[in-house]
């Protein structure tokens, strides 16, 4: 069955928030259940390294029977050896417990060399056609193994290698894997700023009908001692100015959008409410 048919069976989750192991235990951090009492929260996107599993906050959400998505933090989709028996067994156990609506994650490099617990490296992919084809094979293999959609996300980066525009790379990936896409607007804004272009460059040819999920998050502009400027994707409250026009532009024209996540897991509850209100207002329109 083609993606155009499969996407109709995916649930519409609405507005969600992200978490990862230990995030809720940071002093002053967000408690997803407390947020749900204040915001019409549809789901929790759980960032997972299988070696760590689920923390108490994620477990409480799951045990309450609430909706989740599974966001991998330890998988290089373009490396077949990453889908080893041990990792797949750990994945299967977590999926059985979570019953996520789908799997997703930054489609880049989560580790360099052998996978190791606690690495949390994240680099963008090499933006070439060969890389897109290799990554597509990983998506198809994982989708076949789990029976769930595997939705790749554009990662952040301070620099990018390859001859393709970021959006062209993910358009090819979606086509080769016949998959939906997770469009992270903060990561896209970082990429466009790095290139010195408009936030919306490349969107005209991008397959927006493939976008199932979108992310909004904060970032900080930093400068190294030698003057190199970059944006740290720190999930703070400082959403880049370029993100809002992207959301306004894209939200009304993504026919298969099922979910929007605000990534803000380490911020106090009261401070994130205005951002949720702003996102919800745009998506509602």
Average pLDDT number: 92
Helix content: 25-40%
- Count structural domains: 1
CATH architecture: Alpha-Beta Barrel
CATH superfamily: Divalent-metal-dependent TIM barrel enzymes
Reported by name, the CATH topology is: TIM Barrel
The CATH class is identified as Alpha Beta
Fold and architecture overview:
The chain is of the alpha/beta class and 285 residues long. It has a single domain (3-284), classed as TIM Barrel, CATH 3.20.20. It is built from nine helices and ten strands. It has an eight-stranded parallel sheet with strand order 5-4-3-2-1-10-7-6. The protein has a two-stranded antiparallel sheet with strand order 8-9. Strand 8 (220-223) and strand 9 form a beta hairpin. Helix 5 (129-146) packs across helix 6. The longest helix has 18 residues, at 129-146. It is globular, with a radius of gyration of 18 Å. The two termini are 31 Å apart. The model has no long low-confidence stretch (mean pLDDT 92).
